[in-house]
Amino acid sequence: MGFTDDSDNDLPDWLSDLGSDQGDEGIEYGEDSAFDPEEDKPEWITNDPSSGFELPEEDEEEVPDWLAGLREQHSTSTGPKTDADIFLSDDDDLDDQDWLENIRDQYVGEEGEGEISPEEELDIDFLDTIQALKAEDEQEEPPVSDDEPTVRLQDYFASPEEEMPAKEDTPDWISGLPSMGFGDRDADQPGEDEAQAEEEADTDWLRKIRDQEAAERGEPVEESPGEPESDIPEGRYPKEQPFSETPEVTGSLPAWMETLQTSGLVLPSEPDTDEELAGAGYSDEEISTLFEQDDLPDWLGSDSAPDTGPSAEPSAPSRTPEQEEDEKPIERAELPSWLQAIRPVEAVTSVAEDHLPDEQEALPSGEQERVGPLSGLRDVLPAEPHIIHFGTPPRAIPGFELTEIQRQHADLLKSMVGTESASAPTKRRTVANPQQILRWVIAILLLAFTFAAFWLSNSFTLMLPKPEGMPPENLAVISLVNELSAGDQVLLAVEYQPGLSGELEAASAALVQHLLLQDARIVLVSTQPTGPGLGDAFLQENFKGDDYISSRQYANLGYVSGGSAGLLNFASDIRQTKADMAWDQPPLSDLQTIQDFALVAVLTEDPDTARSWVEQVQPLLENPLTGQEVPMVMVVSAQAEPLVYPYYYTDPQQVAGLISGIGGGAYYETVTGPSIAQHFWTAYNVGLVLAMIIIAVGSIYNLTRNSLSGLSKGRS
Amino acid sequence: MKKFISNFRAPLGMIFAISAGLIMLMTYVLPLDGLRAIILNIVMIGAAAALVIGVFNLLAVHVKRVEEDNKALGSLVLILALVITFVVTLLQEYTGFYPDWLPGSDWLLTYIQVPVESALMGVMAVTLVYAAARIVTQRPSIFSMIFVLTLLVTMIASTQFGMDSNLGQSVQTFISHGLASGGARGIIIGVALGTIATGLRILMGFDRPYGG
Q1: Could you list the residue range(s) of the whole structural domain that residue B34 is in?
Q2: Please, is A79 exposed, middle or buried when counting C-beta atoms within 10 Å of its C-beta (0-12, 13-18, 19+)?
Q3: Which of A86, A201, A640, A678 is the least crowded, having the fewest Cβ atoms under 10 Å away?
Q4: Chain A closest-CA separation from residue B109 CA (Å)
């Protein structure tokens, strides 16, 4: 491996791929690839006017179209500069070839002045030995792919060398480069010839591409001057050493950065002085943590860790305990255990990713479930149609292959963009501020007035609303229940969560009371896991005075799994869906289909659940033989009323009646007699008025304060 | 073998999904109620199995958390609550020797789960009142003022005074049944159209929410 090979590694991946794809097998590296730069150079590169190709070095417009296209593609694909781009490349305006040569020229200029010391000669001999071994390896093994460009170089970099002093006129990012042996080359060979040889080697693959294209077009292919490399007398050019020194492993940079340097990436050096840091606009805290490995994405740190192992070990003894103490990673803030406990998804993913076997990592991982009981699992079919965000899956672009380094850059960009949407953790306040005090005052006021009104309900009770103002949807429910006869089966769907059971029970108590007055038979069912228990508790606690309830003559069909699909199955065949029930015994013996119910009442606070019942069950409530339709009524939370009301206010009605919130239950209780809504009515009104006053006063105060502050600013 | 399966997982999943969708669509057109019932039964069994798997998944996550962190008190409480509830419900519902004097699953639901979740709703009520009082400061705009005014009017109309007055009822009807339900109807129509479009895209294979 010679200098040309090194330059190949320094080339951008998109360029390296082209070169390797077009003729790696014909390219010889290192000593064997020595050739006459003047003879080997094709005409279109040597800028020979007689050849018809004129390619001024600084005139980009005369670059062949296919090469210009590649350059444009590269420039457009890079997109706007990010911090990482600036960090990794100091000047993107340079052409890829130019910046590569500038680096070498500057480095040759720095190193060419010195003489070879005996120690360096020993290094050269040592490197010659490695070079010979390397050449043998290359004869036996295929060329190393781009995916592992510096695997064997990493071993070579393991030994530490003396720190290379940076010239004052050298840019910082150049001074951070590892030593690449340019000085040794320059000592043996004039710099101009060496630059030409380097240029030849770099453009050798370009010539291959050009020849291949010409062959495809049917044009005569130029005889490659670089092919008869064996004719070149050995010793005409000195043995090219890839690196005269191993890169500096001083410990001043994080290990991953030093690894990037060894893998051919150009990185800026760490600012040496406080002035430089101050000039860069970093705060003291940022300076202390700017180059810490914890600031990096996990993938970068983990990938670089194995490579830096050999090189990082020798540098460890040179660090003082103080430096090691300073370089300790900052501990992440730990979430309280109770907060971690309610976030199982992250726990699953992190643990699973950490312990994922390599074989499983090779397999494509499916979409991770984020909601429901299967949160954290992968490769599960989504069961929540209203939660899924459908989209076109990513498609592979034919002919587009992503190299490892390109993928790493893409991941880096993705991680940087991803952090933009992440909310910064808020600092926990230890001292009560006015807002916290205000929150506590509001909570205490609401609790105090509500409880006071609740406890004083015996002596101070608000009257229920006048039945004259009852909305028509409430009247429709009352009328439907009045039409029931004794023994009619009523399906009562308990579809609310425990947190809203207070409101839903207050709203539906009058309905159940009315059903019991009509001697209707109640059948409970739910698609919520807690629904059957909630329904049972609701009946037993509030209607235990009724023999029908206390003797548990009602039926509880239990939980119906499957969401909307389960509802459809239940409505299609109630007996088959709940096959474990005693359908041959009362009170279920009279039920064959869902049309045998006289009324279906759904108690829910969720508009989506209400919609599922309307979409899946309501169409099946019509008897196809008689044409009679079983009415469906709903008792919903006040927050769901606007979303359910359109199903009532339509023709034909999909929901025959509607009761919403405690207000609807209070209206109903004016007909059936006081129940839960009456019990809570006074406290409910007091709390509502108090909340209204707090909102009004707070809004007026804040509005006035904003206006006054605006006026004072205008005057000033 | 795994690679072979992974290569064929996407097309097999697509074939299954599209076939199931087309068959279900046909059951609404053709007299194939029996076939639809079979498919729906499979879905229900799968959903129930998913719930069980989810419970074990949750248990495994928190067991691992307890093993890794001795201070994971919340996870420990969750595991204990899950085990106790599971055992109590199992014994009470499916065996005959659960003593009556011991609190059962209904007691756990009524006196633990319902109060805890109701308390969270109470905290949310306080937070909403506080947020509504400060919204003019946080987002001083004409829309925030309209929001606060609408909120106050709706709350007034929901009280005893508002419900008994014709003006309150008219305002409540206009806001709740006119403006809000009008917008809700638009949402429902949009959901219906979106459902149709999504169904067609899945049937044609353009969308593959099942992966691949």
Answers
A1: 14-102
A2: exposed
A3: A86
A4: 7
Asked whether residue A396 is domain-assigned, the answer is no
Q: What is the dihedral of CA B133, B135, B141, B146, to 10 degrees?
A: -60
Instruction: Give me the domain span that covers residue A79.
Output: 3-251
Q: Kindly state whether residue B108 falls inside one of the protein's structural domains.
A: no
Statement to judge: residues A19 and A48 lie in one domain? yes
Q: How many domains does chain B have?
A: 1
Chain B residues touching A705 at Cβ < 8 A: 137
Residues of chain B positioned with their CB less than 8 A from the CB of A649: 177, 181
Best mutation site among A332, A337, A605, A703 for testing chain B: the one with the most B CBs within 10 Å?
A337
The answer on A522 and A593 residing in a single domain is: yes
Distance CA A180, CA A669 (A): 90
Quote the CA–CA distance of B192 and A65 in Å, as a whole number.
Answer: 52
Angle at A453 between CA A449 and CA A457, to 5 degrees: 175
Asked if A463 reaches chain B (Cβ–Cβ under 8 Å), the answer is yes
Cβ distance of B65 and A462 shorter than 8 Å: no
Closest among A408, A148, A416, A420 to A299, alpha carbons compared: A408
- Locate the chain A residue with the closest alpha carbon to B58: A344
Average pLDDT across each block of 10 residues of chain A; the chain has 716 residues. List them in order. 42 49 41 44 46 44 52 47 43 50 57 50 60 64 44 44 45 48 44 57 64 66 47 46 47 53 45 48 45 44 41 46 56 57 49 48 56 63 51 66 84 81 67 80 92 83 86 94 93 94 94 94 93 93 91 91 89 86 84 93 94 93 87 94 92 93 93 88 92 92 86 80
Q: Which candidate in A442, A462, A695 is best for mutational testing of the B interface (most B CBs within 10 A)?
A: A695
Q: How far is A348 from chain B (nearest CA, A)?
A: 6
Q: How close does chain A come to B155, measured CA to CA in Å?
A: 7
Long-range contacts of residues A583-591, Cβ cutoff 8 Å, at least 24 apart: A587/A489, A587/A521, A587/A523, A587/A553, A587/A554, A587/A555, A588/A523, A588/A555, A590/A489, A591/A489, A591/A523
Which residues of chain B does A667 touch, with a Cβ-Cβ cutoff of 8 Å?
163
Nearest by CB to A537, which of B109, B126, B173? B109
Contacts of B191 in chain A (CB under 8 A): 611
- Selecting from A530, A685, A703 the residue whose C-beta is nearest the C-beta of B160 gives A685
Predicted local confidence at residue A193, as pLDDT: 56
A446 contacts chain B (CB < 8 A): yes
Query: Distance between CA atoms of B177 and A603, rounded to whole angstroms?
Result: 20
What was the ipTM of the complex prediction?
Answer: 0.86
> Cβ contacts (< 8 Å) between A351 and chain B: which residues?
61, 64
CA A424, A425, A426, A429: dihedral to nearest 10 degrees? Answer: -160
A589 token code pair = 């013996």
User: How many Å lie between the alpha carbon of A57 and the closest alpha carbon of chain B?
Assistant: 48
Cβ distance of B50 and A374 shorter than 8 Å? yes
Q: What is the pLDDT of residues B175-209, one digit of tens each?
A: 888 888 889 889 989 989 998 999 898 888 888 77
Provide the 10 A C-beta neighbour count for residue A649: 16
Q: Return the SS3 of A65.
A: helix
**Is residue B65 assigned to a domain?**
yes
- A149 by DSSP, 3-state: which? coil
Of A382, A443, A645, the CB nearest to B126: A443
Q: Identify whether B7 is part of a domain.
A: no
Q: What's the pLDDT score for residue A468?
A: 87
Q: Which two tokens stand for residue B86?
A: 């599971």
| Same-domain check for residues A445 and A524 | no
Residues on chain A touching B73 (C-beta within 8 angstroms) = 337-338
A390 → closest Cβ in B3, B110, B198? B198
In whole angstroms, what is the distance from residue A47 CA to residue A121 CA?
39
